[in-house]
Amino acid sequence: MTAADDSTTPVKVSVIYYSATGTIAALAKEISEAAEEAGAEVRLRRAQELAPQEAIDSNPAWTRNAQETAHIAVATPDDSDWADAVLFGSPTRYGNITSQLKQYIDTLGPLWAQGRLADKVYSGFTSSATLHGGQESTLLALYNAAYHFGGIIVPPGYTDPSKFTDGNPYGTSHVDGQGELPVDETARKAARVQAERVVRTTRALLRGKADS
Description:
The protein is 44% helix and 16% strand.
């Protein structure tokens, strides 16, 4: 048995996301479930909403997602501190992450200053309204934070035959057509592949530390 396959090594994963109309929430749920099936202990957390209620109320899909995910705990710095691996999710906003997820990441400054975010695994997932709506730049921008943390970035790459179908080596992504196109099986498969790879790689790293 290799270190990567040693399911006895405990792995803690936090899936921290922001979602307006529900696409990223669906991907986060898929990733969380896949990570649990791979043997990880998982925290699913949402970033605090910053938009005014009238903006939310103006969009039925946004309103519905807010209601359906109200039971999910709001992310705190402890969720990143606790985890061995963190998967961040955000729809693209002009080729960058949302202000809601950015605000959460900004609260991690004290942990960063203490070196408590270093040597963890980080990975990301996103969505866009159109096919060329900023998915890659959003994930690259997200990973910039992990560089500053001293984190270990684990993207899905083209490490599974299914990745040649969804085509995004940077992270799981979905084109949602302004919330009109629900998450499909291609994106769900990509989410599972990414979650499993994150758990497998994190487990190997933890086992390597324990044996060193």
